[in-house]
Amino acid sequence: MSYLSIKGLSGKATIGGTVKIVGAKNAALKAIAASILFRSPLLLDNVPDIEDVSRMLEIIRTMGGSVSVASHKATIDASTLSSTTLTPEISKRLRSSIVLTGPMLARHGLVRFPHPGGCVIGERPIDLFVEGFIKMGAKVKKVGKFYHVAAPKGGLRGGELFFRTQSVTGTETFMMAAVLSRGVTTIKNAAMEPEIVWLADLLNASGAKIAGAGTPTVTITGVQLLDAKKKVFTVIPDRIEAGSFLILGALAAKKLTVTNVIPEHLESLTELLTYTGTKISTTKNSITVSANKKKGGLCAVNIRTHEYPGFPTDLQAPMVVYLTQAEGESLMFETIFEGRLNFTESLNRMGANISMMDPHRVIIRGSTTIKGSHLESPDLRAGLAFVIAAIIAKGESKIYNVYNIDRGYERIEERLRSIGVCIERKE
Ligand code: EPZ
């Protein structure tokens, strides 16, 4: 069982340097799914070299598509897909596999899939997907653990969808399903994440007709199969990876710069870091932080996670670690997932003082001294939060379930070592 062994800095701010941010996991995964809408191969650049991307490409390959990947570039030809069943052993562990259902239904009129798995952060229902497909004229049948969805004769019909809760993959799935559907589809209360805007731009540059991506109302007019005409699409930088490194820098760096970022995508985080006492400077494509090590330098704050442009739930766990070092009482209100605060028990074992008020709310009392411990990463974002806690801790830590971290962070130990972190991957 491999683990990450980390020697803590005992609260000192001695790391520093520059980290180049890689392409966004939650953009690349959806572009791979979008390849099913194309009559010709889709060319991507700046694709992160992470487990979830490998899994998604594996699904396309096992279903009959052809995929080639080399040094962050991918060529995906899904025009030869021969199966309409999402590879079960992969899709039941990968939540993002759900987005394949939209393009599959739109192009092939049929898709079978198990309830998609993923992190342990909450129940992860797919009722919005089932309801949406029915509204577009499809028939949905549950056969054992599988869903069988069949489009009507003549293909999916455009429809009026209102998401009673904003859903990132829901918005992406139906935006893609509507691209090849008959007529016009409107998605209301759509999610507005930057990854959705980037996906819409990629589709529109290949012949789709999508308006309003990045606003609460997205309108899609159905067209024929897309063709990128050999254009190469560069995946936008991963704002969650960038935010995770910035939080680490705000706790442990003399000076840390993240490059190849879009600062506007990180405003909710940089606002909060500045407000609580961290020094930050920004250029067009980089952000630099320095740890504020004055006694009482960081002050407590109340945060609620929220759909974009609010504070991202994917940065909640690293931010909780940051708040253990802020003077006073902070509240973290995780509004999106009901199981995403359980990792705080492990932080308490390291010396944090976090009380769970209910499954959505914790109070963090700081600042406390964090001591090294043995930890199991429950999901990729809490896994990275444990890495940050281990780096600021007194003494050594071992973090198991490294696969969960590799799902979303490329070459994590190598890139941390490059900024002075004492970390090793051990078998
Ligand atoms: C996406 O998950 C991301 N995953 C998540 O990132 C991210 O945390 C989440 O959006 C919120 O930003 C990918 O893009 C692959 P949702 P998604 O549908 O789309 C409820 C990471 O670490 N809901 O926006 O699955 C749901 O329970 C991952 O990279 C329904 O009720 O999240 C949640 O409470 C973790 N019914 C809320 O909506 C549905 O049919 C928002 O979930 C679908 C969702």
From TrEMBL:
Active site: 119 (proton donor)
Cellular compartments annotated: Cytoplasm
Superkingdom classification of source: Bacteria
Main localization, broad class: cytoplasm
Catalytic activity: phosphoenolpyruvate + UDP-N-acetyl-alpha-D-glucosamine = UDP-N-acetyl-3-O-(1-carboxyvinyl)-alpha-D-glucosamine + phosphate
InterPro entries: Enolpyruvate_Tfrase_dom, Enolpyruvate_Tfrase_sf, MurA_subfamily, RNA3'P_cycl/enolpyr_Trfase_a/b, UDP_GlcNAc_COvinyl_MurA
Gene Ontology CC annotation, any one: cytoplasm
Enzyme Commission code: 2.5.1.7
CDD domains: UdpNAET
GO molecular function, one term: UDP-N-acetylglucosamine 1-carboxyvinyltransferase activity
Pfam families: EPSP_synthase (PF00275)
Record keyword Cell wall biogenesis/degradation present: yes
Uppermost EC category: transferase
Pathway info: Cell wall biogenesis; peptidoglycan biosynthesis
Presence of keyword Cell cycle: yes
Enolpyruvate transferase domain segment(s): 12-416
Modified residues (2-(S-cysteinyl)pyruvic acid O-phosphothioketal): 119
Keyword line: Cell cycle, Cell division, Cell shape, Cell wall biogenesis/degradation, Cytoplasm, Peptidoglycan synthesis, Pyruvate, Transferase
Residues holding phosphoenolpyruvate: 25-26
GO biological process, one term: regulation of cell shape
Stored NCBIfam families: murA (TIGR01072), PRK09369.1 (NF006873)
Sequence similarity: Belongs to the EPSP synthase family. MurA subfamily.
Name listed for the protein in its UniProt record: UDP-N-acetylglucosamine 1-carboxyvinyltransferase
Organism encoding this protein: Candidatus Lloydbacteria bacterium RIFCSPHIGHO2_01_FULL_49_22
Gene: murA
